[in-house]
Amino acid sequence: MRSRIRSRRSRLIIGSWILLLAISPGANTIAQTPQGQVRNSVNPNRVIYTPTNGQTIYLDRCALCHQPDGKGKTDGSNGFPPLTGLSEWMSLREGQLYVAHAIIYGPYWGDVLVGDQYYFGMMPRFGPRFTNEQIVAVIRYVAEELNTPLPGYKPITVQLVEEARRLPDTMDAVREERSMLPFR
Ligand code: HEC
Description:
- The protein is mainly α.
- It has helices at residues 2-23, 27-32, 35-40, 54-61, 63-66, 87-90, 93-104, 132-146, 158-165, 171-179; strands spanning 108-109, 112-114, 117-119, 122-123.
- It contains ten helices and four strands; from the N terminus they run αααααααββββααα.
- The strands form two sheets. It has a two-stranded antiparallel sheet with strand order 1-4. A two-stranded antiparallel sheet has the order 2-3.
- Helix 4 (54-61) packs across helix 8 (132-146) and helix 8 crosses helix 9 (158-165).
- The relative contact order is 0.17.
- The protein binds heme C (HEC).
């Protein structure tokens, strides 16, 4: 008797799920969209931080780890890589794309080698929390204020950030992109 009630209830639950999937608008598109695209997209509910000035964003959201002067931090057990020494990457389209992907993707952790130093800290996922314009602003601050732009430098565009959002949402992809860049 009990088990019959239970099975009737579970049939009801399964039935209402099917109904929900069938009637809710967009449910099918979400199911068909590769997971990365949904997770990487800006989420209007999570953009609760509104500043658009690159320096403000950097000091509020990046300096805790990368330090206000961008020199990073090596003491302690993990460490955060410097964001200085990036002039060459910032003058390359692939370099800008990787940096945007590193900010969008997360949690980004593992071993990042800069010079002869490995960094093992963790960087949170900023993709859903920042608009493309905010990502442009903070990358421009890194490129133009923490580093010295090389001749021929072109500021990153909203289009390139959007392109970075569509890159595969895996750490392997981020690492692969980094490994193709000149050693820094
Ligand atoms: C909680 C600490 C933390 C915060 C906050 C943080 N980062 Fe990071 N960031 C890291 C760590 C750690 C790495 C290296 C990832 C690894 O070890 O795999 C990293 C890597 C990077 C890289 C790639 C460097 C390289 O050599 O490949 C860039 C670019 C970067 N961060 C930019 C930013 C920007 C811009 C912000 C602010 C929007 C930011 N980070 C906020 C910890 C942080």
